[in-house]
From TrEMBL:
Coiled-coil positions: 173-251, 350-377
Protein name: DNA repair protein RecN
CDD domains: ABC_RecN
Organism the protein comes from: Pontibacter anaerobius
The entry's keywords: ATP-binding, Coiled coil, DNA damage, DNA repair, Nucleotide-binding
Amino acid sequence: MLIDLKIKNYALIEKLEMNPSPVLNIITGETGAGKSIMLGAIGLLLGNRADTKLLFNQEEKCVIEGVFDISSYNLQELFTKEDLDFDNQCILRREISPSGKSRAFVNDTPVTLDVIRKIGENLMDIHSQHDTLQLGDTSYQLNILDIYAGNTSSMGNTTFDIYAGNLSYLRKYNESYRKYKKLESDYKKLTDQLAQAQKEHDYHAFLLNELDEAGLQENEQEELEEELKQLENAEDIKLKLTQAVQSLTESEFNITSALKDTVHTLSQLAAFSNKYEELRSRAESCMIELNDVAGELEDAERNTEADPQRTLEVQERLNLIYTLQRKHQVQSNAELLQLQRELEEKVGSVLNLDTAIANTEKAVKAAEQEVLEKAALLSERRKASFGTFEEELYKLLAELGMPNARIVIQHNEVAPSATGTDDISILFSANKGAQPQTLIKAASGGEFSRLMLSIKYMLADKTALPTIVFDEIDTGISGEVAVKVGKMMQQMAQKHQIIAISHLPQIAAQGNSHYFVYKHDTEDRTISRIKKLDDQERINEIAHMIAGANPSDNAYQSAKELLSL
């Protein structure tokens, strides 16, 4: 529950603080005094977007802080998930600087708006006129019925489940539906890929067949180009190899003979110094190496012959490789081989896609069956609650001055969607003999308010929201009905902290704590302030609500009677 609320430098509020009662808190005040401004500030605290135009003093930052007791709300898992320290007291804070920079904090830890919104929706439920209009939306009505039927945790709170730690029926269905839609999407992608692959298959197969027939080998081009150079220059190569052999071994002053004499001479000197022995050894190594070179040159010379037939074969093979490179716009044999592997994958992928599509189609059918089974269970639970929902809501509306009201839940089965296979609409008529119609057509403003209050009352025991804020939910009612609305709020406040902004004395008298919002004029501007009323001040305020600025003795007496109730 909300323990402490501080608002500083927001709209007409220079500085405001309130410590609401754990049960029913009433806020009253003249029109424009700042009651709705407070709700705007609380909205910022719960993650709404900020606007620097709302700063009271444009040179100072705005700070809104709420302290909540969350000791019994089982929020540890949520805090852990968001990497936040958990404490029985939770402090939410928003700061808006004059430059427009907005910062959010949970227990003094900086967080994003998304995180403070997730935390905040577990702490407070603000009912405004916008929510009353939402009641006409069928998806909102379905959400209400799911909460009533116990299919989900609570309105605006799907983080934790109230059913023995198990996932709620709606969440189980949602998980199966998301899985089904993901598989369905995968199946469509695969079939699209297959259609595209089939269009290209024949062309790719032709290109692949051409490369397969070419029988390309790794490093083949480089080896052939080198061989062709030798074949085309065989006579010149053979002549030069012969000359090299002669220079090494056969000429009058050949190198090997000279080196042999050098080795012999150094052998004679070796006895005089180790240095000469080392030189002899090195010269001998050179002689051995030159003999090896000479031998290889002789082999190369013998094996080098002009071969016109082989030259033609190599030229034709290289021309084939060059032609394929130009065709596929690549520069090397290695790139052709890489292209060949890619074409093999593309051609083979059609067969692989057939298998993948068959497997995915089977998985889609299984997932669809699971969705339909869980949707049927969800639908069964919803339909089972229709009668009790209609009856309970009718009784509450009768107590609130609508004895001839009729509530009918219209149901149609539709294709599976994120919410199941049910399309529902709450039909309503306020007058005897009138055919029930959709809420948008049948309910007036006051009737909408009573409907919403009755529904909130019915859901109070089924939700995990600790603090409920009502912003003038009493619009369009008065007299004895207003007294009953106040009693209803009192009963809700036994399990939920209630903060209600009201303009009716009958409801104001029901509060355990009564706060009065008023304007205070300073020399240069108007300031909105709030004060908690004592017993006498409550009598005075309620008397003013009854009779206006100058209440009579009867008004004061009526105020006392309302408070005594």
